[in-house]
Write a structure and sequence with these properties.
about 425 residues; about 0% strand
Length: about 425
């Protein structure tokens, strides 16, 4: 009873509870948006919006120079050192401004190229990329400011902000899809996140009145050098992830049809919803704690907290999803998506391995273990791509989720062995 009381009173429990509410809102909203997409646009529309989502994930990294995790780490480490914080924020602002300008020009003037690459020539959606070019400064600014707030430990503010923004975002997305169908879905994905800049800017301005860190004298090349290591790590993922996922999706489209690609996108979309619980909790709570851990013992304590509290809850959630899979497909998507029922077992297995391995991957980020991170990412994407191609040939769409499970099982095993050896080597 005492142990249960201690758990309930713990900071992790309070943050997890609030985070769970935020994630629940995002899941419900995302599922509602997906349900509208599935019913109005069908599997084909699901596949095309999935391609744009993959592109936007990469754009997140390129437009912010991959600084997001580095910002969280450095602001967490120096949150009580006002001078150092000004150095960090000034360096980030001026560096990212240059990156945004370059990416905006690339999006605007090469819109035809992006349209052909992202949508495989299916339709003329050049306007989407030109709109993105104009929205990018506000879109990237919101991501940067949220990273600053995460690093400062403003868990409650960040979670409350994302909760209300998700509610507003779903309402806007559903209205746009209902009004303009596929174009409305693209508009919601590309333009709405930029509007969130106003709210994140307001919260940062409260912590740094008049944004005094914008003075050029605060720019620090040593901070920039440290952040570039995070850029390298982020760019590897940002380059490989959309390329591999687009290749798998387009392979399904070419060798099977848009509907098969839509089934795979449907299971990926459902997975992304419940995985928000893990990813947001890691970013908001565990990454700052791993960054501040100074010894192997402190790091292991963070790992234990994650595996004792988070993983059992996540595993229970996966079991619930599996037993409710028919209900989820019929209610949240449509009867057209029933063939994807066979994909659940492999996707859920892969997601369990992924959740277990993520805390280890975040340790590589927190401690700036650049070479190990890059090597593990490249190997995992090679395994995912090659195993997907091989298994899809033999098992169809089910092969793609088999490859997902295989990839993250190997990723978990390799990182577990690595950290076992690492802690033995560094322990006194």
């Amino acid at each position: 009873m005492v142990r249960l009381t201690n758990i309930v009173r713990s900071n992790l429990f309070r943050i997890t509870s609030l985070n769970s509410l935020s994630v629940l809102v995002k899941i419900v909203g995302g599922l509602l948006s997906s349900m509208v997409t599935a019913k109005l646009l069908g599997p084909a529309g699901m596949a095309l919006t999935g391609n744009l989502r993959s592109f936007l994930l990469a754009l997140d990294t390129y437009s912010t120079l991959g600084f997001q995790n580095g910002i969280i780490k450095y602001t967490a480490e120096h949150q009580k050192n006002e001078e150092k914080l000004h150095n960090i924020l000034s360096t980030v602002f001026y560096s990212v401004a240059g990156g945004i300008l370059f990416m905006s020009l690339m999006l605007f003037f090469l819109a035809d190229y992006w349209n052909k690459w992202v949508f495989s020539g299916m339709g003329n959606h050049i306007w989407v990329f030109r709109m993105l070019a104009l929205a990018l400064p506000w879109y990237a600014g919101n991501l940067i400011f949220l990273s600053v707030l995460n690093g400062l430990g403003k868990y409650r503010q960040v979670i409350v902000f994302t909760t209300w923004s998700n509610i507003a975002g779903v309402i806007v997305s559903v209205l746009l899809i209902w009004k303009w169908e596929l174009d409305g879905a693209f508009l919601g994905l590309a333009a709405y996140p930029a509007l969130l800049f106003l709210f994140s800017f307001y919260m940062v301005q409260q912590r740094f009145p008049r944004l005094t860190f914008l003075k050029k004298g605060y720019f620090d090349y040593q901070v920039l050098k440290g952040l570039l290591s995070y850029s390298l790590m982020s760019f590897i993922t940002a380059i490989l992830s959309p390329v591999v996922f687009l290749a798998i999706r387009n392979y399904l489209i070419i060798h099977y049809n848009l509907s098969e690609a839509g089934y795979w996108e449907g299971i990926m979309r459902i997975s992304s919803f419940y995985f928000l619980f893990i990813s947001t909790l890691l970013t908001v709570y565990f990454l700052p704690k791993l960054s501040m851990a100074q010894t192997a013992g402190e790091t292991k304590a963070v790992f234990r907290e994650y595996f004792k509290f988070v993983i059992p809850l996540f595993a229970a959630g996966l079991l619930i999803v599996y037993f409710l899979r028919y209900f989820i497909i019929r209610v949240l998507l449509s009867a057209e998506f029933l063939p994807m029922e066979s994909l659940f077992i492999w996707q859920l297995a892969g997601d369990f391995f992924k959740a277990c391995s993520f805390i280890l991957g975040y340790q590589l980020i927190a401690k700036k273990m650049t070479r190990v991170f890059i090597t593990s990412e490249i190997l995992s994407f090679i395994v995912l791509y090659t195993s997907s191609m091989w298994l899809i040939e033999r098992f169809g769409t089910e092969g793609a989720v088999m490859a997902h499970a295989l990839t993250y099982l190997l990723y978990l095993v390799i990182l577990s062995v690595y950290f076992q050896l690492f802690f033995k080597r560094t322990s006194p």
